[in-house]
User: Which sequence fits this backbone?
């Protein structure tokens, strides 16, 4: 038997919202008595235990939708001169002068000038009374150390092509940080897919959806460089070794390309503009072992050639990967090679053999980055294999400072243009390392995982606050550095001077000590050679006897050890 509770509210009340129900307590009442039917038991299976889930909350469904991307376009209008009547031509001086005299004689014009004069006089007096641009705290110097070093991503520029290529090189627009040019290329030998695009792009930093301009070379660009004296002109080094020159005012096609017979025979890895009166001279290097000088007005053949030969036999023995040129030292330049050697050269030397003044060797692989410190040109940074090294021109045997060996290969590096103690390195695991020797020297001050792919190149803007990093998949990430990394700290230049001088002195002392030890070893070896003829036979017999004794002593010790182990096992 079972009991049920009767419905105390009528169906009409419940459905149409009549008078509310009044509930009262009362004893249980049996409404229906149904007897047990044992025959129905065979038609069911007992479930033990019996679990039932009840969800009181309403069921919801989750949907995702990607809104349409908003594309921005920049448009401008050139306003020459306006406000003249239709019958007046602004280009005609006589007509404009006649019209001005007519207006100046008008009574309405004179009254308007008189009314505006009093208002203008009042405004000028007010401006002179209160200097709204006055700085009240000029004498207080901001402490940049208070803020921890950081960097945030502003934009990401993606290769718009279906087959993604490596962002091989980046160049900033000279006048401001509004644009950057990116060279795209597949650097792996014979890895380019059929039908792959050879275009490179100029991007507006505020418009990552669409390139500002497309450059169409005849071969993929490996490097690209703006002309610092003319922001409309840029050159690009191509994979086939040719140098191309663009004027952005004249379209996407190159204005001129160097003759392939007079160009490099390997990919052109680096190009730098020189300081000259015309602003049209540059020089390039490649792994074919040559450095070529060009004038972009006449690109049929190079103006000068240097063969990278340290053996002085006239044949290229080293392949160029990177270049360094300091405008304050116009005759000097440096070349980083794929053999890990850095060459210091003088362009104005009398003979080709004398052009290569010195070489610095310290890397186990290609020198991908080479740059002098903007504040201390005697010291320069090299990046190759798993380390970055800082050198002094006074020391050729070894670098004065270096980073630890990373687990991942280093691909590029550069100095900060505003802070002498800060430099940057990029790694194959997608990390950007920021080194601040004012803060610590053993580890990077900031390590930032920019992307999951390998970082291939980086370039910092001249103001020191924006950094562009190019990856293996063609993405260029634009980072904004914090003030502590982009503003020079108090007494930083003097402190860095002391650091470099101290490390240079230390290396000089170690180098002189090493030379002394070598001289002593040579002297000993010479003395030993004189006596060796007499004592060779006696020494040979003594050595044989000593070796025989040592052998039998070792055998006896082994026997004793075995016997001890056998006794321990029996016990």
Assistant:
């Amino acid at each position: 038997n079972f009991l049920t509770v009767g419905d105390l509210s009528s169906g009409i009340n419940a459905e149409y919202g009549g008078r509310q129900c009044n509930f009262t307590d009362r004893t249980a009442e049996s409404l229906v008595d149904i007897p047990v039917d044992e025959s129905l038991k065979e038609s069911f299976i007992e479930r033990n235990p019996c679990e039932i889930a009840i969800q009181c909350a309403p069921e919801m469904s989750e949907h995702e939708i990607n809104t349409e991307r908003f594309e921005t376009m920049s448009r401008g209008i050139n306003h020459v001169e306006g406000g003249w009547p239709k019958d007046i031509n602004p280009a005609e001086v006589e007509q404009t002068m006649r019209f001005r005299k007519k207006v100046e004689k008008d009574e309405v014009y004179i009254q308007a000038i008189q009314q505006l004069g009093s208002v203008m006089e009042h405004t000028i007096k007010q401006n002179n009374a209160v200097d709204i641009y006055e700085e009240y705290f000029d004498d207080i110097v901001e402490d940049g150390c208070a803020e921890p070093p950081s960097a945030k991503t502003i934009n990401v520029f993606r290769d718009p092509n279906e087959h993604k290529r490596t962002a091989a090189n980046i160049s900033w627009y000279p006048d401001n940080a509004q644009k950057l040019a990116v060279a795209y290329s597949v650097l792996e030998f014979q890895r380019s897919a059929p039908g792959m695009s050879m275009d490179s792009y100029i991007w507006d930093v505020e418009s990552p959806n669409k390139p500002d301009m497309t450059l169409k070379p005849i071969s993929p660009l490996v490097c690209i460089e703006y002309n610092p004296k003319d922001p409309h002109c840029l050159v690009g080094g191509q994979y086939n070794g040719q140098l191309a020159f663009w004027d952005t005012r004249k379209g996407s096609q190159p204005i001129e390309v160097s003759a392939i017979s007079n160009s490099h025979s390997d990919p052109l890895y680096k190009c730098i503009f020189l300081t000259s009166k015309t602003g049209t001279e540059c020089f390039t290097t490649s792994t074919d072992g040559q450095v070529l000088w060009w004038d972009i007005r006449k690109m049929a053949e190079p103006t000068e050639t240097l063969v990278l030969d340290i053996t002085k036999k006239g044949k290229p023995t080293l392949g160029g990967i990177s270049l360094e040129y300091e405008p304050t030292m116009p005759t000097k330049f440096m070349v980083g090679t794929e053999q890990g050697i850095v060459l210091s050269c003088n362009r104005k030397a009398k003979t080709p053999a004398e052009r290569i003044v010195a070489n610095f060797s310290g890397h186990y692989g290609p020198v991908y980055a080479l740059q002098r410190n903007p504040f201390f040109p005697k010291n320069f940074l090299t990046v190759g294999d798993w380390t970055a090294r800082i050198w002094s021109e006074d020391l050729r045997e070894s670098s004065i400072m270096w980073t630890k060996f990373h687990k991942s290969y280093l691909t590029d590096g550069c100095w900060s243009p505003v802070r002498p103690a800060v430099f940057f390195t990029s790694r194959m695991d997608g990390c950007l390392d920021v080194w601040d020797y004012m803060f610590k020297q053993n580890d990077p001050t900031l390590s930032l995982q920019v992307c999951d792919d390998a970082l291939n190149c980086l370039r910092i803007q001249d103001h020191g606050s924006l950094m562009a990093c190019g990856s293996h998949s063609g993405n260029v990430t634009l980072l904004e550095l914090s003030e502590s990394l982009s503003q020079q700290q108090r007494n930083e230049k003097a402190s860095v001077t002391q650091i470099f001088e101290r490390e240079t002195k230390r290396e000089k002392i170690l180098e002189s000590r090493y030379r002394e030890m070598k001289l002593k070893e040579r002297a000993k070896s010479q003395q030993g050679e004189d006596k060796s003829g007499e004592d060779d036979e006696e020494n040979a017999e003594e050595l044989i006897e000593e070796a025989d004794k040592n052998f039998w002593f070792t055998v006896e010790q082994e026997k004793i050890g075995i016997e001890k182990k056998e006794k321990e096992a029996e016990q």
